[in-house]
Design goal:
- With about 260 residues, the protein is mostly helical.
- Helix content is about 50%, strand content about 0%.
- It is built from 14 helices and two strands, in the order H-E-H-H-E-H-H-H-H-H-H-H-H-H-H-H.
- It has a two-stranded parallel sheet with strand order 1-2.
- Helix 8 runs antiparallel to helix 9.
- The radius of gyration is 22 Å and the shape is globular.
- The structure holds fe (ii) ion (2 copies).
- The site of one fe (ii) ion (FE2) has 4 residues, from loops.
Length: about 260
């Protein structure tokens, strides 16, 4: 922030300038706003101030729809459209699903692997299993969304009976003294005795980070499996009035003012 010496707080107009610089983009007269969560991610407890932004941008209005900086979405978006235009990376998802497919797993498991990290790929890392499961819950078999939710906890717990070990990568990521929080331990204990435990365990077993670089992965290989196992709403994801429609809309329009 551009504060003058001897003055600890910026003036209102300096603050408005800063907001303008940060948040006003040349969007055909529209102002795109960043949500509070975006600021929290930068380590700041802050929010966009509507009145200050308007004052700094006379004659302009806030963006209330598509952000032209992002790839356009069709009027009735499908899961495939989100894969192509909103998921920051699909390699890991495709690799996991390909691994499950080659291992002869049922379609339900292949779909669960294909979708297991969409929370991370599209929304947020913290509690990604829960976010991802909630997004897909209205559209998949209950076993699939359950498995996606639980894989987050199961990843931290070995299962010698199927040869699953604590991921080496987690030691690198979190240190060798990291212990999952009590809510994750409790979730694991609930999942361990559940009838669908093995479905979620299979996600963790196909959840690989090193993959044959020569193996070809292609979203087209999964279009039929998606077609048979993901109930694509005819109105488009986001417009079908399901309990998670708002999540798909937010992903489509992440900078809408409201
Ligand atoms: Fe995951
Ligand atoms: Fe994963």
């Amino acid at each position: 922030m551009n504060t003058k010496p001897g003055r600890s707080r910026p003036t209102l107009s300096e603050r408005a300038d800063e907001l303008e610089e940060k948040m006003m983009h040349d969007l055909s007269e529209r102002i795109a706003t960043r949500s509070t969560l975006f600021y929290l991610g930068d380590g700041k407890v802050e929010m966009a101030q509507g009145q200050a932004l308007l004052a700094a941008n006379p004659g302009r209005h806030f963006l209330m729809g598509a952000d032209p900086r992002l790839p356009p979405m069709p009027e009735k978006p499908t899961l495939i459209d989100f894969f192509k235009a909103r998921f920051a990376t699909t390699a890991h998802l495709l690799q996991s699903a390909t691994h499950a497919l080659k291992g002869g797993q049922p379609e339900k498991v292949v779909l669960a692997c294909l979708l297991h990290d969409i929370g991370v790929a599209s929304f947020i890392r913290c509690d990604h299993g829960y976010w991802g499961a909630q997004m897909i819950e209205p559209y998949v078999d209950e076993e699939v969304s359950w498995a996606v939710r639980m894989h987050q906890a199961l990843r931290f717990f070995p299962d010698a009976s199927v040869g699953y070990e604590y991921p080496e990568l987690y030691i690198k990521f979190f240190g060798d003294d990291y212990k999952p929080e009590p809510y994750i331990v409790a979730e694991y204990e609930r999942a361990r005795n559940h009838k669908w435990y093995m479905t979620s365990r299979l996600i963790t077993m196909n959840d690989i980070y090193s993959f044959d670089p020569n193996a070809k992965v292609d979203l087209n290989d999964f279009v039929d499996i998606i077609g048979r196992n993901f109930k694509q709403p005819k109105e488009g994801l986001g417009f079908d009035n399901s309990p998670s429609s708002h999540m798909w809309r937010t992903l489509m329009w992440p900078t809408r003012f409201l």
